[in-house]
Write a structure and sequence with these properties.
This protein is of the alpha+beta class. It has 4 domains: about 160 residues, 3-Layer(aba) Sandwich (Glutaredoxin); about 350 residues, Alpha/alpha barrel (Glycosyltransferase); about 70 residues, Orthogonal Bundle (Arc Repressor Mutant, subunit A); about 70 residues, no CATH class. The protein contains 26 helices and 23 strands. The strands form 8 sheets. It has a 5-stranded mixed β-sheet, with helices on both faces. A 4-stranded mixed β-sheet has the order 21-20-22-23, with helices on both faces. The longest helix is centred in the middle third of the chain and has 19 residues. It comes from Flagellimonas aequoris. This is Thioredoxin domain-containing protein.
Length: about 700
């Protein structure tokens, strides 16, 4: 750079709102978001727009003033949210239009998925498309009638002025449109209580997977499309299906997908962890934000895949992804932060997507010297790995064996060289401005990470992962669970302000059941049972047999949503249904199993057309149509036996154990003094006890 450092520093301070003489940050504008804790909302606290957070009193004021709502939804790691903020929301001219005609509400979609769900459905009904930033104009009561995603400044101002005038001149027309749209939002969310049909069977499931397989990219993995999303629940179900149905073709596809994802630029080879998705078909160029929920789920997925394949690549991915979350996202109290931004400052001081992660060939030549020849072959510093503007995103496409043979060295020597080179790059990268951190802590995302750590411990056997999992679980119990066993959604700097949603309950119940299976500490099962009972009392809809996304103790907007489609995170109802099935195995007579089966029947009509959108539900199809093993271990060596059995991938099973008698029905009347015995049961009916792991596995039908 041509600017000398002191002058550049002065420019930077001014740009950030600093007074160089006082060293205090000054801002021309400050709105009510300054009182919020969400990093995304705080990013907008000094916009000239009179933003307010989503609170009932704001909506009441809009009704009294008969003023339209302008609702803008995004999240801290969202690239196009930053672009629109810079072009529109930081502009006083734009702010004048917004402030004059609207009550302006900013929403962090990660804190308020309940609101985001409804308005995302609305914009898809209005325009056929969705995304973030999600901008909605609504009547004072919250019913939407117009929406858009990113809009350039001039179009944005023109649209808002026209909408404001239209509301003044033809309110009945606008109101009728909003009413019709509101009716549509109710209609698309209806789930019928299916009392007649038989349960989806294995023959139907095989046909559904066949239809789904027509979209498989068998060469590059994932689906035949761009952008490519990682979809952990898709590959986890297919891993489950391939192993229990003995489908080698499906297992080959899963293996291809996981290998290509691990090879791709979507995985950070320098610092570990996965970015959000790839913009191309070969998993090369990511949308560079790193989200906790992706990484937590992918740790689980790769740990399970390692248990099946013993592929060292998968083990390495688990280890490096956990290392990334510890280094970048772990709070000292044991909670995990939400995300790292896609954008960071480039060499010119401008925010640019991916600036922190990419390399020029000149940089690599300077840093690696003589090692560049092998490195550029390993990570494709060539036309295959080139992104744009002379920047490369590291991507692999060959095995270590192939490259070691090509360069005439051993595999271990190659791996040692690459490890040393990547350490050099990591040290160099640490000198760059880091992407911004969203340091709020969300219950469901922490639960997904907790489950990932538990699975990593279970299948890799690293005690540090269990210690980290227990620290996280203790944090959740201490900070996110209320005295009445309800949950908070969010936490930041000692404050929790939002009641949890079904997603939070479902994911945490799932994580606690998994934590019990590796610790055999019944406090985690007791916690799971209390959360299950609370969720049933406050979220269950007797009419549909499903669970609402929001509690009956919270304010409802337009509708109480029922979430059924499995997306990047599985739907809250599918997670809950799987939980209930497992809880029924541990707590017989509670009615949990009947609810789970009915929930599955309510949504199964779409499985044959869109299996990938119901992947987590399909795990329950397998559970209900195949033998599901309840494995009870009792005796002095139950933990050692449990660890050995638990390290084997048996998705259609649940483990329970105790040194002696237990309150769990599955463990009662099983003790024989001085002996450790294992009971393999199906639907509560148990075979004669055995005393070795080998005997246990012989009683389980493994392919």
């Amino acid at each position: 750079m041509s600017l000398k450092f002191p002058f550049f520093l002065l420019i930077l301070m001014v740009a950030l709102g600093c007074n160089p003489k006082s060293n205090k940050v000054t801002h021309e504008y400050t709105n009510s978001l300054i009182h919020e804790t969400s990093p995304y909302l705080l990013q907008h606290a000094h916009n000239p727009v009179d933003w307010e957070a989503w609170h009932p009193e704001v909506l009441e004021r809009a009704k009294k003033q008969d003023k339209l709502l302008l609702i803008s939804i995004g999240y801290a790691a969202c690239h196009w949210c930053h672009v629109m903020e810079k072009e529109c929301f930081e502009n006083p001219e734009v702010a004048k239009v917004m402030n004059e005609h609207f009550i302006n509400i900013k929403i962090d979609r990660e804190e308020r998925p309940d609101v985001d769900q409804i308005y995302m459905d609305a914009i898809q009904m209005i325009s056929g498309n969705g995304g973030w930033p999600l901008n909605i104009v609504a009547l004072p009561d919250g019913r939407p009638f117009w929406g858009a995603t990113y809009v350039p400044k001039e179009n944005w101002m023109r649209s808002l002025e026209q909408l404001a005038q239209l509301y003044k001149k033809d309110k009945p027309r606008i109101t009728q449109y909003a009413t019709d749209l509101g009716n549509g939002l109710h209609a698309i969310n209806l789930v019928e209580h299916n009392k007649e049909s038989d349960l989806f069977n294995l023959e139907q499931l095989d046909a559904s997977v066949h239809n789904w397989s027509l979209y498989f990219d068998t060469f590059l993995g994932g689906h035949k499309r761009a952008p490519k999303f990682m979809m952990p629940n898709n590959w986890e179900f297919l891993l489950h299906y391939a192993t229990t149905r003995n489908r080698k073709d499906i297992m080959e596809f899963v293996d291809t997908t996981l290998t290509r994802m691990a090879y791709g630029g979507i995985f950070d080879h320098v610092g570990g962890g996965f970015s959000r998705y790839a913009v191309d078909t070969k998993w090369h160029v990511p949308h560079f934000e790193k989200m906790l929920y992706d990484n937590g789920q992918l740790i689980s997925l790769y740990a399970k895949a390692y248990a099946v394949t013993k592929n060292e690549l998968y083990k390495k991915v688990v280890e490096q992804t956990i290392a990334f979350t510890q280094e970048e996202l772990l709070d000292e109290n044991g909670g995990f932060y939400s995300s790292l931004d896609a954008d960071s400052l480039d060499k010119t001081g401008e925010l640019k997507e991916g600036a922190y992660y990419v390399w020029t060939k000149e940089e690599l030549e300077r840093l690696l010297g003589d090692d560049l020849d092998i490195f550029q072959d390993y990570f494709n510093i060539n036309s295959y790995g080139l992104w744009e503007d002379g920047n490369y995103v590291l991507i692999r496409d060959k095995t270590d064996g192939e490259l070691a043979q090509k360069h005439g060295i051993s595999i271990s020597e190659l791996q040692k060289k690459m490890k040393a080179d990547l350490a050099i790059l990591k040290k160099e990268r640490s000198k760059r401005p880091k992407p911004r951190l969203d340091d709020k802590i969300l219950t469901s995302w922490n639960a997904l990470m907790l489950k990932g750590l538990v699975d990593a411990y279970r299948y890799l056997g690293n005690d540090e992962y269990l210690s980290l999992a227990l620290k996280n679980a203790s944090f959740i119990q201490r900070e996110m669970v209320k005295k009445d066993h309800s949950l908070y959604r969010n936490h930041k700097e000692g404050k929790s302000t939002i009641n949890a949603f079904l997603e939070d309950y479902a994911t945490l119940i799932d994580a606690y059941i998994s934590l019990y299976e590796v610790t055999f500490d019944e406090q985690w099962l007791s916690n799971a049972k209390r959360l299950t009972n609370y969720a049933h009392q406050h979220f269950f809809d007797a009419d549909s047999g499903m669970y609402f996304f929001t509690s009956d103790e919270d304010h409802s907007l337009i509708r109480r949503s029922i979430e059924t489609n499995d997306n990047v995170i599985s739907s809250s109802n599918s997670i809950m249904a799987n939980n209930l099935f497992k809880m029924d195995k541990l707590y017989h007579g509670g009615g949990y199993g009947a609810i789970a089966t009915q929930m599955l029947k309510n949504v199964q009509q779409d499985f044959d057309k869109r299996a990938q959108g119901f992947a987590n539900w399909l795990n329950l199809v397998l559970y209900l149509n195949q033998d599901f093993y309840e494995i009870a271990l009792v005796g002095p060596d139950f933990k050692t036996m449990g660890q050995t059995i638990g390290a084997i991938y048996i998705p259609n099973s649940i483990l329970a154990g105790s040194v002696s008698e237990s309150s769990l029905e599955l463990l009662q009347n099983r003790e024989v003094p001085g002996k450790t015995l294992a009971y393999v049961c199906i639907e509560g009916a148990c075979k004669l006890p055995v005393s070795t792991t080998k005997d246990v596995l012989e009683r389980i039908k493994l392919p």
